[in-house]
Amino acid sequence: VVNIEKVGRKKDSCYTAKASMSNKPAQTIESFNPDLTSVLRELEEGHYLFIVADQKKASLFIFTQGRLEATHGIMDPGVMKKTKSDSGELYGRNTKLMHHRENQLHDHLTLIMQEVTTFIKGKHLNGVFIGGHKPLFSAIENELPSELQKILRGTFVTELNIPREELIEHCKTALEAYTK
Predict the structure, then answer these.
(1) Which residues fall within 8 angstroms of residue 149, CB to CB, at 6 or more apart?
(2) Pairing between strand 125-132 and 47-53?
(3) CA nearest 2: which of 16, 48, 18, 14?
(4) Three-class secondary structure assignment of the chain
(5) Residue 156, strand partner residues
(6) Is the overall model pTM greater than 0.90, yes or no?
(7) Rounded distance, CA 94 to CA 84, Å?
(8) Exposed (0-12), middle (13-18) or buried (19+): which is 9, by Cβ within 10 Å?
(9) Among 19, 30, 47, 180, which is most exposed with the fewest C-beta within 10 angstroms?
(10) Do the Cβ atoms of 52 and 59 come closer than 8 Å?
(11) Are 171 and 61 in contact (CB under 8 A)?
(12) Which residues are 18's β-sheet partners?
């Protein structure tokens, strides 16, 4: 079911339509062609961004009509591993190490979001999915730019240390589950 809320005309013969489908939020579409079918096709053919991340690396995927369109990999070995609390020479310094690790993770997620911004430039996104380890989902979601937070469609758990083709299949499965 598609609802057209408003159709207007802007300068230079550009038409705008605000359309929404039953399972997706409203989107504003600009088109130089006032034909309603072309507006609806543009709504359907939007891109879906997948951000699959862990503490050291991330993979970005863009799918269009269920097909992989673009990929980008990010490697940032700057986040140190968790250490056992109150062990050996670390006794009494847990908060300092914990804050240091949190800062490193924040920097890693900031780097990912900078790469995301560059990666999606000029693309109309219908949705964003977050994949990876479940404990990172809320941190990734908090780092997303507000326009991407609004179109967050779901999360899925996966490992990043698997073959790339298998990771792509996990993304496809999440997209198919959403679009059904």
Answers:
(1) 141
(2) parallel
(3) 18
(4) CEEEEEEEECCCCCEEEEEEECCCCCEEEEECCCCHHHHHHHHHCCEEEEEEECCCEEEEEEEECCEEEEEEEEECCCCCCCCCCCCHHHCCCHHHHHHHHHHHHHHHHHHHHHHHHHHCCCCCEEEEEEEECHHHHHHHHHHCCHHHHCCEEEEEECCCCCCHHHHHHHHHHHHHHHHC
(5) 131
(6) no
(7) 9
(8) exposed
(9) 180
(10) yes
(11) yes
(12) 6, 28
Give the Cα separation of 77 and 57 in Å (integer): 7
Joined together, the tokens standing for residue 55 give 């503490």
What is the spatial distance between Cα 160 and Cα 140, in angstroms, rounded to a whole number? 15
pLDDT digits (tens, 9 = 90+) for 25-66: 555 544 444 455 544 544 556 799 999 998 889 999 999 988
Neighbours of 149 (CB within 10 A): 12
As a dihedral over the C-alpha atoms of residue 123, residue 178, residue 144, residue 53, rounded to 10 degrees, the angle is: -100
- pLDDT (tens digit per residue) in 96-122: 666 667 888 888 899 999 999 999 998
Sequence-distant (≥ 6) Cβ neighbours of residue 33 within 8 angstroms: 15, 39
